[in-house]
Amino acid sequence: MPELRKDPIVGRWVIIAKNRADRPQDLSEDALSPPAGEECPFCEGNEAQTPPEIMALREPGTLPDQPGWRVRVVPNKFPALELEGDFNRRDSGMYHTMRGVGAHEVIIESPRHLAGTTELTADELRDVFWIYRDRLLDLKKDSRLVYGMIFKNVGAAAGASLDHAHSQLIVTPIVPISVAEEIAGSQEFFRHRGRCVFCDMIDEELAFEERILVDSPGFVAFCPFAARFPFETWIVPTAHASHYETLSRAQSEELARVVQRVLEKIEAALDRPAYNYIIHTAPFDTFALDHYHWHIEIIPRVTKTAGFEWGTGFYINPVSPEEAATFMRELPAV
Amino acid sequence: MPELRKDPIVGRWVIIAKNRADRPQDLSEDALSPPAGEECPFCEGNEAQTPPEIMALREPGTLPDQPGWRVRVVPNKFPALELEGDFNRRDSGMYHTMRGVGAHEVIIESPRHLAGTTELTADELRDVFWIYRDRLLDLKKDSRLVYGMIFKNVGAAAGASLDHAHSQLIVTPIVPISVAEEIAGSQEFFRHRGRCVFCDMIDEELAFEERILVDSPGFVAFCPFAARFPFETWIVPTAHASHYETLSRAQSEELARVVQRVLEKIEAALDRPAYNYIIHTAPFDTFALDHYHWHIEIIPRVTKTAGFEWGTGFYINPVSPEEAATFMRELPAV
Questions:
Q1: Is B16 on the interface with A (CB under 8 A)?
Q2: Same domain, B227 and B282
Q3: Domain span at residue B239?
Q4: Is residue B334 part of a domain?
Q5: What is the mean pLDDT of residues A81-95?
Q6: Which of A179, A247, B57, B305 is the most exposed place for a label (fewest CB within 10 A)?
Q7: How far is A250 from chain B (nearest CA, A)?
Q8: Which residues in chain B (49-108) have CB-CB distances under 8 A to chain A?
Q9: Residues of B197-232 as b/e, b for ≥16 C-beta within 10 angstroms?
Q10: Domain tally, chain B
């Protein structure tokens, strides 16, 4: 069973999840594709190679764990957290620890062996964003769990271990520290100005124009003013909402179109880089928050972070967001 | 001139430092060694290839920027921050920005072309730790500057752009966010328990033993309870001190020996991995703090961080610190 441990200085929780390898020093990354001769476990027809599915969008009349699906959700074969059991919170000397209760699911985005989000059809990507919502709504019924992190790793440099298009959901019994800081910061802003910092940011960016990448009625995509990474891009819904799971069907359609346009630009600008996207949303145990605003952060993995960044949270970005957005806006044909 | 920008949500400052490349998408990493046919700019005899030296430990009678040095400090040729000028703090709409005033220095650790910290002689490494102190004492005289980050990147995966042994010092006009959080967290601990959290941790680790790597009279090295990364190791002085620059000559000798023993173990365990070390110390504009304790964090770069970690600050570590420390303690011959 994985273990959650709390750092006594900053209060950051980490998951200590036993290595899959036999020896502690065997840490080589998983290969991006299955070894030669093995089939992709995420392709249609290979359903038996994953744990039994949690849910799927399927053709009428098809059976679970059989072909006929469009999007399929399965438990991660090597979960960082496990659903069974109680927390068993305890102290070990000055340290706090609990059992790694939670969920770790994989959303397989297409039955076809596609690598990129931009290769999905608009309908497939809409279904993916819709399924994220379904999974959050389902998992938040479990009162032990308070936060759902949805993220996607594309490319080995971004941490992906399989290249078939998929994203992941990790649901935890604690609020991750960066999320807690984001919520505290936006609350502070609200206390001073009486407005949501993300709503203000949308107004500011639309007025300034230079950092805007896509301006769609329901979503604005821009390179943030204090971007940590070159070509970092945020996608923010124009209507204030703190929880991703309030997404409407129409919004999921539009979000799919906007995300695809943004990723097409990033892929054209940086020659199909590895990237991550992460959905930032409010904790399960909060009601609609006036001060927080869900959004998606896309981070191309084109520079290596050095010791400086790890040690301090202080990033050096060699490309200004104005430069990145202008470059992407002016790309031909995308 | 580089620019400092503040994220309006969490208050994190980033440096936007103009790309050295002509086009924003040219982000390929520097090669680890100079191109074929070019000499290493950090080797003795090639002093003219760096900016003029700031200081050096030299044989009597030798001249600056000439051979005869043991450790040499030069400005970074591509500085993230620059010393000249004032801050020019200003608002740009809802955003805060200031000019990137600060220092960015390189400490060249040996005149010989050695790649690893473990290849330095004990005297060389002692001189390096002593020079860190000298540079902090010198730069903290500049009242515009409040924080000095000393770090070392070894290996391309850790962000090193040259393989000749060197470390870096970045001095900033703001306290980096992770440092501010560490100080706030340790202050909170002190308020509740009346003790320094790091002092408590030393006692706890020495009593528990399993996570201890090196137990020397003046320094304890251990894998921290809530380690974010496999084989992450901290080195903490046993005598309480908040500021690195209070290091004594005798401490610098002992620190060099402890750091070398720890790195030898890490290199033997992981087959000479890329790694970073970062010195965590108190801001210039504070006096001796009862609640904060300077220390060194060593992070081997053996796993890729995925979107999950970036988005949330929530790390998954596949090797428990007990397992890592036990493995390293039991290595033969090191």
A1: yes
A2: yes
A3: 179-329
A4: no
A5: 85
A6: B57
A7: 26
A8: 80, 92-95
A9: bbbbbbebbeeeeebbbbeeeebbbbbbbbbbbbbb
A10: 2
